[in-house]
Design brief:
single chain, mainly alpha, 2 strands, about 65% helix
């Protein structure tokens, strides 16, 4: 079953290569034949996994198989996605190609390509496509494509959202996933149209839209979005904010149930946090640069939307970068966006549960006989979910510390190591973390150990740790 589902997705990726191949012929960028070879190799791997290694697969899944499938698929497909970079000669080493591909599929956006504008246009499209496909989730793509899973679909759905609680949009899990993909696709098409209408090229519009809705962050030029019009940046700001919202909650926009946005505690916190952070950054930038201007406000809104959604887009900022925006940026990197969104980080829902738990605990210290329950959106949060959040937070911190340690012994400074580890496990990637790093950090210059460390952190952040750890836990496999 693992091989069959991995093969199915690899074949889907090979079919998706038709778009970059068509773009390569259209732009005559010289990469078309290498892309065809890459697609054939991906197709061959997919056919082998699906029809030979997965020939006798059964569709009766248990919990342990769902975690195994989730982890293996999220490793196999991105590694196959590295082939176009190698076949075209865009990247010379497998480590760099794997880094670029894993960064894309996990929607991290960290890149070892220093000058994206210098690579074939078809590769720019492929980079953005990997982010868009990985944004909503490879496993959800399996559920949407393979209806024969029946009850197994629910287990895969739970494994994909192993660290959060994601509301279903329909009692039938496959239909629920199809609705999510419809919302995701509709927002993407709408953004492409808006970007094209304000004067951006077709390639830029498509690539930026795919990277924005997936909160991926791959950009088409070395200096980010510097040089784009304020109207373009304004549109991207709105869609980055929307992309940080729970996909299931966005469904209410289509069903005209707008009141649910006001009663959703996580969304209210997300909106308030966004406005507070943007306005406080605006004040800090204005005071530091002695310039209270509309452009500074636009930049503050753009920067906070990019950070809190973990999209990671950046553009030319104010000349003086004060201390407060740096601290706030780092905090927002860790907090992340809403649960069930394409964004990364700890997720605001988890932080809300932790805050309510600590508040109740402190109250019980004074009133030991009082019984409290944790409620979000007027619903009681199960105690096992609270325990899972504490476990997740502990593991999250351990991964950051462990990753920072490996980065440090690879040559990075302590400050840079912690910022890199935090950004990549939060799937943020290229956004400036603190003023000393800025937006000119080149991942290409990092040693091999650092790159593989960051790749593990990207996967851990995207799979929300539990699915990745399950397959290497002996006690998990001893369960009956």
């Amino acid at each position: 079953m693992v091989a069959r589902l991995a093969g199915l997705l690899t074949l889907t990726m090979a079919g998706g290569m038709l778009l970059p191949i068509a773009a390569s012929f259209y732009y005559a960028d010289g990469a078309q034949y290498a892309l065809i070879l890459a697609a054939l190799l991906m197709g061959a791997v997919g056919l082998f996994l699906r029809n030979i290694a997965g020939r006798n697969a059964t569709y009766d899944l248990r919990e342990r198989e769902s975690f195994w499938i989730t982890s293996v698929v999220w490793i196999t497909v991105p590694l196959c996605g590295a082939l176009p970079y190698l076949m075209t000669g865009t990247l010379q080493s497998f480590t760099d190609a794997a880094f670029e591909s894993i960064s894309g599929f996990t929607t991290t956006g960290s890149s070892v390509i220093v000058r994206p504008e210098a690579i074939p246009q078809s590769l720019l499209l492929w980079r953005s496509m990997t982010q868009w496909i990985g944004g909503l989730g490879l496993i959800l793509l399996v559920v949407a494509l393979l209806r024969r899973l029946s009850d197994g679909s629910l287990k895969l759905y739970a494994a994909e959202f192993s660290g959060t609680q994601q509301r279903k949009l329909h009692p039938h899990i496959a239909k629920s996933v199809m609705r999510m993909w419809f919302i995701y696709s509709f927002i993407t098409v709408l953004l492409i149209a808006l970007l094209a209408l304000v004067g951006n090229s077709a390639l830029d519009s498509v690539c930026l839209a795919l990277s924005t809705v997936s909160t991926g962050g791959f950009m088409t030029a070395q200096f980010g979005l510097t040089g784009y019009s304020e109207l373009t940046l304004g549109i991207l700001t709105v869609f980055m904010f929307l992309s940080g919202v729970n996909v299931a909650l966005l469904y209410n926009l289509f069903t005209l149930k707008w009141r649910r946005f006001k009663v959703n505690h996580e969304f209210v916190l997300y909106a308030v946090l966004f406005l507070f952070a943007a306005l406080s950054c605006f004040v800090a930038f204005s005071i530091a640069n002695h310039n209270f201007s509309l452009s500074t406000l636009h930049f503050s809104l753009f920067h906070i939307a990019s950070t809190v959604s973990t999209c990671g887009f950046y553009t030319e900022g104010p000349a003086v970068w004060p201390f407060w925006p740096s601290v706030l940026t780092f905090m927002l990197i860790l907090s992340g966006a809403c649960a069930g969104s394409t964004g990364g980080g700890l997720k605001l829902r988890r932080l809300m549960v932790l805050f309510l738990y600590m508040r109740n605990y402190l109250t019980r210290m004074v009133h030991p006989h009082v019984v409290f329950t944790i409620k979000i959106d007027h619903k009681v949060v199960p105690s096992d979910y609270v325990n899972k959040i504490f476990a997740f937070l502990f593991l999250y911190i351990c991964f950051i510390i462990g990753g920072a340690f490996l980065l440090t012994i690879s040559g990075s400074s302590v400050a840079d190591a912690f910022c890199l580890a935090s950004a990549n496990i939060s799937n943020l990637g290229p956004s400036p973390l603190i003023n000393s790093l800025g937006a000119n950090l080149e991942y290409a210059s990092l040693p091999m150990l650092s790159k593989w460390t960051l790749m593990v952190l990207m996967l851990a952040g995207r799979l929300e740790i539990f699915a990745l750890l399950a397959i290497v836990s002996p006690s998990y496999w001893k369960r009956r």
